[in-house]
Description:
Blueprint: E1 7-8, E2 22-23, H1 28-53, H2 55-75, E3 83-89, H3 94-105, E4 109-114, H4 118-126, E5 132-136, H5 140-146, E6 149-156, H6 160-189, E7 207-214, H7 221-252, H8 254-259, H9 265-293, H10 303-327, H11 331-348, H12 360-367, H13 370-384, H14 392-417
Parallel strand pairs: 3-4, 3-5, 6-7
Antiparallel strand pairs: 1-2, 5-6
Helix pairs in contact: 2-11, 7-9, 7-10, 7-11, 7-13, 9-10, 10-13, 10-14, 13-14
Amino acid sequence: xxxxxxxxxxxxxxxxxxxxxxxxxxxxxxxxxxxxxxxxxxxxxxxxxxxxxxxxxxxxxxxxxxxxxxxxxxxxxxxxxxxxxxxxxxxxxxxxxxxxxxxxxxxxxxxxxxxxxxxxxxxxxxxxxxxxxxxxxxxxxxxxxxxxxxxxxxxxxxxxxxxxxxxxxxxxxxxxxxxxxxxxxxxxxxxxxxxxxxxxxxxxxxxxxxxxxxxxxxxxxxxxxxxxxxxxxxxxxxxxxxxxxxxxxxxxxxxxxxxxxxxxxxxxxxxxxxxxxxxxxxxxxxxxxxxxxxxxxxxxxxxxxxxxxxxxxxxxxxxxxxxxxxxxxxxxxxxxxxxxxxxxxxxxxxxxxxxxxxxxxxxxxxxxxxxxxxxxxxxxxxxxxxxxxxxxxxxxxxxxxxxxxxxxxxxxxxxxxx
Length: 418
């Protein structure tokens, strides 16, 4: 009988333990690799258990990419259509109505209201009811017949995306409608009808457009970006500061010391939020002054009105931060939720991308974010220079939102202390 493989015992030079008896043909390197893989496997098992136990983080990691894809696919649209529009049709005839119908059929303009004149159209834009105005002169049909009709397009310069897309769309509609009229005239009267307009240009179309950009005639992007960005920064800072501060105290055990103090829950809540409120107000002043003096953004409205509404807006952010602190167990989770909220603010509030083309469900999610309303308020005060009477809807919603959030935050905070 042949002898089997010789068995040896090899001592581990690091821990001094005797390894299991292995065939002699296995060298030290192979044994070390087996032990290394065993240690790595144990660490992988430990880390996997830790991830599964932290179900909040696991849920966020799994669902966040799906949420981001959904939001980016539906919220991020570089094509601006369905622009809310006011029409001042001072001609009220078949030609003017055909032109308005062509605007609606293009899909770029949604006629929200009909107004009497150009001044009323400007007021509708001031109030934020619409973002564009179409002014048709009283003698529109006669001018079309002469070949020199002019349509005025009013555009909200506080929203730069509306300016370029709105005027391009109106120009395209006017050209298409003009070509239809030319073809109809040729079919009716023959090629001799192309005698040209008053200038003798046979290629001139009977309808032309002129553009007037309100609030931002130079079309400076900073005038559009800075007021909205101010709202987003205040929202994110207020939420993050409140959420992280409360969770940090919980991790350090400071809240347990506060619980044994004679202070009542409401007093504790006010004591926690007051310093953060002052801090965010100082941040607000820095941001606004930086926007004015560095970026050259004109502040056309009442600074006191802006200050009081900013204070109300910051309170709503602090309340949301308190609500987040009841869900987040660690500072890391609080920061992750704050970053998620920042992404929602960037996409759904109208800061960069217009809300009108968004699906109804996505817009509904945006309506739950207080920054959606304060972006319009900030642009209304800073860029347009209008007062509360022009923005009363957004102000009323922001007041109700702030009260609701603070009541929920105070109730939740009191239950946790009890």
